[in-house]
Amino acid sequence: MILQQLADGIATGAVYGALALAIVLVFRASRTLNFAQGEFALLGAYIAWQAIAWGAPPWLALLASMTFMAVFSVAAERVLFRPLVRRHQHLPVIIVSLGLMIAMNALIGWVWTYQTKEVPPLFGAGIVQLGPVAVSRQDAGIVLSVAAIALLLAVLFRYTRVGLQMRASVSAPESSELSGVSTGRMMSTGWAIAGAVSAVAGVLIAPELFLHPGMMAPVLIYAFAAAILGGLESPFGALVGGVAVGIVENLAGTLVPAVGGELKQVVALALIVAVLLARPQGLFGRKELVRA
Length: 292
Known about the structure:
By secondary structure, the protein is mainly alpha-helical. The protein has eleven helices and two strands, in the order H-H-H-H-E-E-H-H-H-H-H-H-H. Strand 1 and strand 2 form a beta hairpin. The model has no long low-confidence stretch (mean pLDDT about 85).
């Protein structure tokens, strides 16, 4: 039973990690906490659902959704966030992201209604038996997909020119500009990647939660818990944090009768508070030193 809960927790946590990864990418690119990231994933899931409804194969629908959300994210960054980020107006940025979250949710409900919709699993139905543990093909596909995204991003940031420029523009923006690196272009690139990753997270989780405008609200809470646990500066930490949150959520919901299925989000809140108190930079984040 414990092994089964661990396996389920890893699959669920992989989705949290994917959305947390998008949150971290946006934070690294623009020092912005985008509270609308869950709605980005939700919109990506609806775009994929609409493409499938029009007859597109699921994988083509996913690619269309990723492309649309990458463009949409860049547009949101250019129009709504960049002017405020340039002026170092942190509180207005938070308010704008919250407003965008509410507006997107209302527009999604207006366009696609609040009726629950069924999204076909990307990896098909059926069970994969791993010793004593039974895992659905969709869950196994989710874990492998998120691991592949993490590997691609690691290669991007460590071994490619664009990745190195993105890292430099975040750590030393003025020096990067003097070296000919456009920090604005790097910021847009980070948002575009985050938008595409959000679309993947939404499309992967939609078959399990069923598609409706309130689908991503609890997932966003767990994703923020994962990002804070792993460290807002660390993509690898976001994935580790997501898996950890997924496992803790599953074990707490199963083994602690007082928690059950209704109070599992309290576990995420407790985790956020505990990490912020004990290690604000997260498990893989670096502590910022300020000269007096």
